[in-house]
Design goal:
Helix content is about 75%, strand content about 0%. It has about 425 residues and is mainly alpha-helical. It has a single domain, classed as MFS general substrate transporter like domains (Growth Hormone, Chain: A), CATH 1.20.1250.20. Helix 1 packs parallel to helix 8, helix 2 packs across helix 5 and helix 8 packs antiparallel against helix 13.
Length: about 425
């Protein structure tokens, strides 16, 4: 479907490519969605479980349900993003996400909350978040795609820096129910406004500024104007190797983020102080993404992905032995750079290999594996804590998962990195 914008371009006195304006819009989208759901849930774990008398396994089951909803809906959302205007999908998703946050604060029954997490919140999270912003960047950028996605990913860091302390203070001031009400109104309203600012494609004659791209990425670009057929993606071994690498890594990252604040409070660190660990994670990720914005189009992205996984592995091992506040801050500062960089890197790599017109479809098809493994990892973290009283066993098993992910990333890097975009990896 042709979603080209027909409004005339009105250049100002200085040359400016509107793709960079869309990157700013993408930053806001990612900040609001990631801050509300990924980082926000971790902060609500302790107060909600204490108020409702829930075990950590039960409360972690909520985010596991949300990940399962993501697994179900993201292939559908991704295909919608490839077929229709990003602005339209974001508009509907803003209503779903804001309304879901408000509804979660109403009542004590768990099954309505599970249903909200499973469907409307999962749709809102994906339809107005990372996947939507990356699809938008893939449409606006070719030579600067890695840089654009790295800049958009700054929203993840801003989400933790802005939302973590704010939510912590709000919960302590007005309680978790009122906090969800104000959070839903703010996030839903801002995302709705943002959706009205989105321009889906560059207009004819609106050229991206020239730039340099690394040789490996350039040789594998696929710029088909139409999404790849689902069957063509599903029969490619490279697709499944990338999906497995991403799923193993992101499941650990999501579980570690969800467990970070309760892990700290379980080590006798106060709640507000524990939330600063998320801020440290976000500040570090912010710095890492700035560096990534400089090098993402100059260094082999597959190699950068492997380096990011190796650093996350070091953090998982380090958290087993460093249980003081200072030690956890150090691990967050180290891990934030790699965790933050991994998201835009793998999305840029997918767009390189399968084409910008197929980014939503490819990420959507990978999402069930990613979300399902994340749900299992988060559930297991809670179950392991209830059984052992700490997260040592969880972190040890996560370290093994990351080792496997690193091996898969290196295998893909050296075995099938040069597979032609139109061919089938063998």
């Amino acid at each position: 479907m042709d979603n080209a914008v027909t409004a005339p371009i009105r250049p100002g006195p200085f040359p400016w490519y509107r793709g960079w304006t869309m990157a700013m819009v993408g930053i806001v989208m990612v900040m609001l969605s990631i801050g509300s759901v990924t980082y926000g849930y971790s902060i609500y774990v302790a107060p909600v479980s204490d108020d409702l008398g829930l075990s950590r396994e039960a409360i972690n089951g909520g985010i596991a349900v949300q990940h399962l909803g993501t697994a179900l809906l993201t292939p559908f959302v991704g295909r919608l993003l490839d077929r229709f205007k990003v602005s339209t999908i974001v508009m509907y998703a803003s209503v779903a996400l804001g309304g879901s946050l408000i509804a979660l604060g109403i009542g004590d029954a768990l099954w309505p909350k599970a249903l909200i997490l499973f469907l409307p919140l999962s749709f809102g999270f994906q339809g107005a978040g990372t996947i939507a912003s990356y699809v938008l960047m893939a449409r606006w950028f070719r030579m600067h795609r890695g840089r654009a996605m790295a800049l958009v990913a700054l929203g993840q860091s801003f989400g933790s820096v802005a939302f973590a302390p704010l939510l912590g203070m709000m919960i302590e001031a007005v309680g978790w129910r009122q906090s969800l009400l104000w959070q839903g109104l703010l996030v839903g309203g801002l995302l709705f406004v943002v959706s009205r600012l989105i321009v889906d494609h560059p207009q004819e004659g609106e050229a991206e500024p020239p730039g340099r791209s690394n040789a490996t990425a350039r040789s594998t670009y696929n710029h088909s104007a139409e999404p790849i057929a689902l069957k063509s993606l599903l029969v490619r071994i490279e697709f499944w190797m990338m999906a497995a690498t991403i799923a193993l890594t992101l499941s650990v990252v999501q579980a570690m983020i969800a467990s970070l604040v309760p892990m700290a409070t379980g080590r006798d660190i106060a709640l507000v102080q524990a939330t600063t660990l998320l801020s440290a994670l976000g500040i570090s990720a912010l710095a890492g993404k700035v560096v990534l914005a400089v090098i993402a189009d100059r260094v082999d992205r597959a190699l950068l992905v492997a380096c990011a996984i190796a650093i996350i592995l070091m953090v998982a091992v380090g958290l087993i032995f460093l249980d003081s506040y200072a030690g956890m801050v150090g691990m967050c500062l180290l891990g934030g750079m790699a965790m933050g960089g991994f998201f835009p890197l793998y999305s840029a790599l997918i767009a390189d290999r399968f084409g910008p017109a197929s980014l939503g479809t490819a990420e959507g098809l990978m999402s069930p594996l990613v979300a399902g493994s994340s749900a299992v990892a988060i559930w297991f973290a809670g179950r392991s804590f209830d059984a052992t009283g700490d997260y040592g066993q969880t972190l040890a098993i996560f370290s093994g998962s990351l080792t496997l992910a690193l091996l898969l990333a290196l295998l893909r890097r050296f075995v099938i990195a040069d597979t032609p975009p139109g061919g089938v990896a063998t």
